[in-house]
TrEMBL record:
Record-linked Pfam families: TrkH
Membership in a protein family: Belongs to the TrkH potassium transport family.
Superkingdom field: Bacteria
Protein name (database record): Trk-type K+ transport system, membrane component
Lineage: Bacteria, Pseudomonadati, Spirochaetota, Spirochaetia, Spirochaetales
Keywords linked to the UniProt accession: Cell inner membrane, Cell membrane, Ion transport, Membrane, Metal-binding, Potassium, Potassium transport, Transmembrane, Transmembrane helix, Transport
Predominant subcellular localization, coarse grouping: membrane
Subcellular location: Cell inner membrane
Organism: Sphaerochaeta pleomorpha (strain ATCC BAA-1885 / DSM 22778 / Grapes)
Length: 485
């Protein structure tokens, strides 16, 4: 039975803590004298207060704090949906966005670290609104619920099933016996990397405001930027290299960093997913650089490698930054970028997409099936790195891949009702589902989602949520079995 009162109580507490994080852009609004933005933040505080007060009043006599698996799925999905609903209020009240549909899309894109935008022009918006937009990237990068599980002693509930419902990837690393400690470790690593990138970007000539907002989106593998031309605005090889390195850091499994800190460097390097992740990015970046250099797109191989390495890192990690309009690149580098859309980051990373571990496993499953056909009596195992993959995980990965592709295709069909061309529809659907943010045609590096009607933005918001929570957490809510007592 679903514990409605406890789920609602936790949700109210999370909204209050989110409102506290909104204090930073509120102070910025005061500092820059942005009265309309300040008004938007104050209205949001009032809405959160009224909602939370009503919840606490209704649930004041609740003594049952037990949560089951269904509570986990319902609570996590509700948290992302309702947190987005409240966080979008400042964008509309401040007049920065034309309607609530656009604001909801933008914040869902932020929290799910998609980075897709409806803004045709960014730099004219209040700095505090743009900061809040980027901050939602950072909060969603390691997971909203994972963040609050680290604070759960104050919330008064076990967080194991909540992390299980939100965590990405086919496997979940529990670094310590207590899930609260694991969540704290992951967020500590995340914060330290964020501080390091901010410092390095400051050395590259960025203002503190620019460095922080770029870091928010880099470490979250997101893609929002406070500049119209994204990272290309800075025209700096140093900035490109720093952001490329930290995008790749964000796209790797954060559990490996804990292992490295703990002295298990050999096991980190033996990790099959990490080696495949770096190998795919490295090989494709070099091939793209050769093509770009050969076609005269850039001056020489090294400049070509700078741009190809950045853009390939941006797509494979599902960050969505851009330093060039790759729509003008030769066909080969474009096709390689397109293939990376269906790869994604590592399990346990800030990146979205299908995930490297799933792609590698599916490829090895295909080879094993070929061997099995040739040698019917043979016994073959699917191995990734040093580990043999269990049959139940193989089934889970196969099912996920099928549902993922089906969801993307259905999304593309729905988006096609807007009248957009087929490449735009296909790209829009899968870039939202994979939480990538930029794609091809009208939603390429110089495009945006502003031209879509409101109902398409809601479709895309659903795709972003389903992709970020890896489909089944959301889809379970549509099952009759879920709601049976």
């Amino acid at each position: 039975m679903i514990n409605w009162k406890q789920d609602a109580t936790l949700l109210a507490k999370i909204l209050i803590i989110l409102a506290l994080f909104m204090g930073i852009p509120t102070c910025l609004a005061l500092y820059y004298g942005e009265t309309t933005a300040l008004h938007g933040f104050l209205v949001t505080y009032g809405a959160v207060f009224l909602f939370s007060a009503a919840i606490f009043l209704i649930t004041r006599n609740n003594t049952n704090t037990h949560l089951n698996a269904r509570d986990g799925y319902l609570f996590v999905s509700s948290t992302w949906i309702i947190a987005t609903a409240f966080s979008a209020i400042p964008l509309v009240v401040s007049g920065s966005y034309v309607d609530y549909s656009s604001a909801y899309f933008e914040i869902m894109s932020g929290f799910t670290t998609t980075g897709a935008t409806v803004l045709p022009e960014i730099e004219s918006l209040p700095k505090s609104i743009l900061f809040w937009r980027s901050e939602t990237n950072w909060l969603g990068g390691m997971g909203i619920v994972v963040l609050f599980v680290a604070l759960l002693p104050a919330l008064g509930v076990s967080g194991t099933m909540l992390v299980g419902a939100e965590s990405v990837g086919p496997t979940k690393d529990k670094l310590t016996p207590k899930i609260k400690t694991t969540a704290s470790i992951l967020w500590t690593i995340y914060v330290l990397f964020s501080l390091l990138e901010t410092i390095l970007l400051k050395f590259g000539g960025l203002s503190l405001y620019e460095a922080v907002t770029v870091t928010f989106s880099t470490m979250a593998a997101a893609g929002f930027c406070v500049k119209n031309a994204s990272i290309g605005t800075f025209q700096s090889a140093y900035v490109d290299i720093v952001v490329t390195v930290f995008m790749m850091i964000a796209g790797a499994n954060f559990a490996l960093y804990y292992k490295a800190i703990s002295g298990h460097l050999r096991s980190v390097w033996k990790d099959g997913e990490l080696r495949a992740y770096l190998g795919i990015w490295g090989i494709i970046s070099i091939i793209s650089a050769i093509s770009l250099s050969y076609n005269g797109t850039y001056d020489g191989f090294w400049q070509s490698l700078r741009f190809s390495a950045f853009q390939n890192a941006s797509i494979i990690t599902t960050t969505g930054f851009a330093t060039a309009n790759y729509i003008n690149w030769p066909s080969l580098p474009q096709m390689l970028l397109f293939l990376l859309v269906f790869v994604g980051g590592c399990a346990g990373s800030a990146g979205g997409g299908i995930k490297v571990i799933r792609v590698v496993t599916l490829m090895k499953m295909a080879f094993v099936n070929i061997k099995q056909r040739i040698h019917p009596n043979g016994i073959f195992h699917v191995r990734v790195g040093q580990n043999s993959v269990k049959n139940e995980i193989l089934l889970s990965i196969s099912t996920f891949f099928g549902v993922y592709i089906a969801t993307g295709l259905i999304g593309a069909v729905l988006i096609s009702f807007s009248g957009a061309d087929i490449l735009t529809c296909f790209s829009s659907s899968f870039l939202c589902l994979g939480n990538i943010g930029i794609g091809f045609s009208e939603v390429g590096p110089t495009g945006n989602f502003a031209f879509y009607p409101s109902w398409i933005k809601w479709v895309c918001s659903f795709l972003m949520l389903a992709g970020r929570l890896e489909l089944f957490t959301v889809y379970s809510l549509f099952s009759k079995v879920f709601w049976k007592r």
